[in-house]
């Protein structure tokens, strides 16, 4: 009986070692920054705009001739940036910490959230095709986004964001092989 040589370090597991993905898998730590960047700047901008508008409204209501309104608008925008950036950073951190995925013999599952837990399950028989997306920041950090397109119209794709690139390739290949096996029957 011949044994196949072990996989080199860093390659995704195949065969019996693929059982490592039966448990829920957390995102790699290097994905945290991408979640922060996805949430903090837009929320900071929105809060800065809202803060400056509220400050302008306050300046108009407090000062009938409008003098001294610009400093209040700048202070409102600065406070909005700080508050919005902080809230966006907290939201991104929470999204990162509470996003998990797993692969089992029936298919792929993605779990998001803590208070409002949302678990999406994709049976292998419903997978139509798979895409890997890698933006510049993802490539730099060795990450990828796996998009699983499914049969049906509602929620017809499931996204697993910012997972390890090797894991994303493994999932794509494994689910793709399952699709081929199902079509051969």
From TrEMBL:
The keyword Secreted does not apply. It comes from the Bacteria. The keyword Secreted does not apply. InterPro entries: YdbS-like_PH. It holds the Pfam family bPH_2. This is PH domain-containing protein. Keywords: Membrane, Transmembrane, Transmembrane helix. Residues 97-175 form the YdbS-like PH domain. The chain crosses the membrane at residues 33-55, 67-92.
């Amino acid at each position: 009986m011949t044994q196949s040589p072990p996989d080199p370090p860093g390659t995704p597991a195949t065969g019996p070692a693929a059982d490592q993905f039966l448990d829920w898998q957390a995102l790699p730590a290097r994905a945290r920054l991408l979640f922060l960047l996805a949430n903090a700047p837009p929320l900071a901008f929105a809060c800065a705009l809202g803060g400056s508008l509220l400050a302008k409204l306050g300046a108009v209501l407090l000062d009938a001739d409008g003098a001294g309104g610009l400093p209040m608008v700048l202070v409102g925008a600065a406070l909005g940036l700080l508050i919005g950036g902080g809230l966006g950073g907290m939201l991104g951190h929470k999204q990162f910490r509470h996003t998990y995925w797993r692969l089992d013999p029936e298919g792929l599952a993605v779990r998001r959230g803590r208070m409002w837990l949302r678990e999406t399950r994709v049976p292998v028989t419903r997978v139509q095709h798979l895409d890997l997306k890698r933006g510049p920041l993802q490539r730099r950090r060795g990450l990828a986004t796996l998009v699983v397109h499914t049969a049906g119209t509602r929620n017809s794709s499931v996204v697993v964001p910012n997972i390890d690139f090797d894991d994303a390739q493994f999932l794509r290949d494994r689910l793709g092989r399952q699709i081929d096996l199902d079509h051969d029957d």
